[in-house]
Amino acid sequence: MSIADGNNAVVSNIGDEDNDNKRTGTISSARFNILSSMVGGGSLSLPLAFHQTGNLLVAPILLVVGSVLAQQSILFLVKAGVYSTENRERGGATGNNTDGEIGMATAAPRQSNAANNEKGTASYENVASQAFGPNARIFSMALVCACCFFATVGYAVLLRDMLEPIVDSIVKPPEGMGGGPTLARNAAMLVVVLCISPLTTWKNLTALRNVGAASMASVLTVGLCVAYRSIECQLGVVGENETYGSDDNASESYLRAYPPSMKELLDAAPLFVSSFICHFNVIPIHNELRCPTSDRVRQWVRTSIWPATLFYYVIGFTGSLYAKCTPSGSVQGNILLDFDEDDPLLLIGRLCLAITITLAFPMLVIPARDILVRSIMGTRCGRRFLRLMPNNRHWIFQHDHAVDIPSDIGTPDGLTTVEFEPMEISPVRHMEEPLLVLENRSMASTMSDGSADDFQEIRSKQLGVDPDSKAARILVALFVFWSAASIACSVQSIDVVWDLLGSSFSIMLAFLIPCGAYLKLSRRKKFSDTEDGGAGFRRWKISRSVAWIMLFIFAPLMVISTLNACYNSFFSKSN
Question: What is the value of pTM for the model shown?
Fold first, then answer.
């Protein structure tokens, strides 16, 4: 190949790289990705939660309250990302200014990534680090990885259970074998894992927007199947082998406004909370959202949470009514297990749920994968390993020709901690706490002439490591996914891990850290502009009050629910 051809190839690759760094997400794609992360197999536990807490009054109230608090916690999470960037800018721009007011930056202002339509680089662990220190960064990374990993294990076990009737009709299980792992069932589950593995190696979540739409169509079909059979149950349309509860106490047993005991309310609370867990994907999705202004972000969150709430109500209420048609007068944690395995309609439902679970795997694997890749790149051994990758050597060749690294930023000694000036890209002049237009970067630099690139990118070039290594993505994704699937092959029931995750880790991930980070990072916000009559300050005070209320609610709830889950798992006589 000639030198000219080589240079043309370099320019072409650089152009492709620039295109890959553009925001391509729409509100529609962001909505489907959030719904895929949130709505899945866990919705099949809501009929039990409705049955335990009272499907006429208390359960709908808990569901609506949970949706409102989940929506607010997502907004707190993205606001905390904005404040973390503002605090770094304030510290660097003010120099030794100790009065807390924002000083005038001496460097030329740079536009934010959102204004340039460049992808954001914010992350959950960076928000935690800016709010609570470097130890919180490590803790939050471990928390997100643990939640995603064990959720992947649980989904793999649930997938195996959904495939069980089909597999058993082809390969007869051992005599007396009930549910649980067998060689044939595990093999079927691993075949599905093998087929979906390529999706876990994709670069971002926006590329999975069609996957999210298919997942939502599948889970909606499951909900319609459950609702149809439950309505048949209430109308008295029965089969020969179906057992019904007594009509005399039907209204008392299957339609009730309040929980029969405080114990059942505690058992059901984590089920409502875990139904809205999607926070590990909020920031990665927002990083790819085009024009992420306050109005667009609120529209995205609002139109994701409330359709999910409506679906949860339909499947929870109608599924709880099917308790009338079960021998025990109750429903199981997975409502599909209460239906006959030979029911053709519910066989369709099982297949649709299997599709939903399968398509949800990338949404669980990618967050853990990205955190592990960033961790590997932060170690000397990891960088040394990545330099040996073929695509990394090609990346070094490109950037050797395309970039001149300034000699005065070889070490962090000459760096400040400021990067972007605050900028609101909405046409509205005065907006309360602009969302998502500033990106949180772990390390950044502002040179006196304003011409330096982002420090982390430049440092990667100095070290000869591609900050977006395809080989690293593939290897880490396969390691996370297949190790989780391997564990699932030996798990008889995921109930113990599921209860503990839903009552402790999920509450911490979705509510405690976002609210705490928002409170910590927003306390130094100044309102020097009073043209709006102080409305911005009042909204800021209300938001902080709401965050404190949520902390006072979820901190004791996490402790009580965790103790209750431990009791149910290890000390309850029924176990």
Answer: 0.77
